[in-house]
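Quick board copy: two proteins, each given as sequence then tokens.
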Amino acid sequence: MAMTMKATSGRPPIPGIRVLWLAGHLIQTAGVTKRGHASYRQHDSHHPDYTVHLSDMASPSSYPQIEVLKFAVSDAYKQDPAVLNQFLNKIVKAPGVANVWHGPEVQNEAYHYVVVTPTHLNVEWAYKDAPSAYAGIQDALTPAQKEVLYVYYTHFGDANTDAALGAPITELAVADVKADVELARFTAAGNDLLTKLISKLPNEVVPGGRGSVVGEPRKFVVCLGWQSLESIPELVEAVTTLRGLADVDLKHARLSKYTRD
């Protein structure tokens, strides 16, 4: 099933700013469903929407940004998960990409995640050096995906997200801060929640980070690692403290790092 194509900006994207944009504008044109919304407009220092909100990060632009993709798997993938390998292999070999993590959702294996971490700040440099390396990546995903739910381009600052992504269980939660809640209040509540979880479950929690989504200043992606599923109920109970501040889609995945063929 082909990916739904829907542009969300009047301005054409500048090739190379985002890893998956370089892959045939996957980020710009990914399908949008009621489960998630993706904002794929170009963001650079000259764009009026270039605003980052994350109070515990001194300079978001000082760090590479991470892309989080979630999609519903196709019937072809269910029959043979190897149909995803062509896509992953193209991504991991693309200039500017450090690591590619992927895996099924714990709550529902009909959904799959791909997380891309870059090697440096401006992937456009890598694109200009070798544009052919990014050709065909969008088409390579088509056999494995039934529907793209979201692609978020996120600022995680200097957080060690690889530690959380490499944990046995990785929490990937999306939080939409409610309109009447100040972002500083949400940030403080999130920091307090994480501190309490680490204190209560020091051998279970693998600290990760909270990333603000580019173009959506009230949306955050939380990446946290867990050693086992046994402690997840503790998390679910703790997250109830945030329900009054944000709409939280709390999900978990079993991710593995993809290596080159």
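And the next:
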Amino acid sequence: MNSNAEYWLAVTVYLVGSVLALWLWHKVVRPLPRPIAGMSWMILFALLLSPTVTEGANGQIAPAIIGLIFGVISKSRELILSSLLPMLLVLGLGFLIGFLIQRLRSMRPDIN
């Protein structure tokens, strides 16, 4: 099997698993208040789907959480920071988008 095909198969399986995990998390946090449920969903989204690029001759895109785990295990400060920054960026953008959506919902007239 071609290594490029194996890579895309692995990416597809990871994305489908992440979407499934996010959908299940949405079902779990449904009873919680809306802001807490949304923030916890966004944190899980940032952990699962923040991308980073692996180092080396065959560097490809990978989840940032994997780089963060390797950085913690190897005690590599540079790897920890380079993996944590994309997650924090995704988290910050997600919180900003969530804030704007909540703002728009509160400004919309309630039709009953």
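Board note added afterward: The chain has a mean pLDDT of 86.
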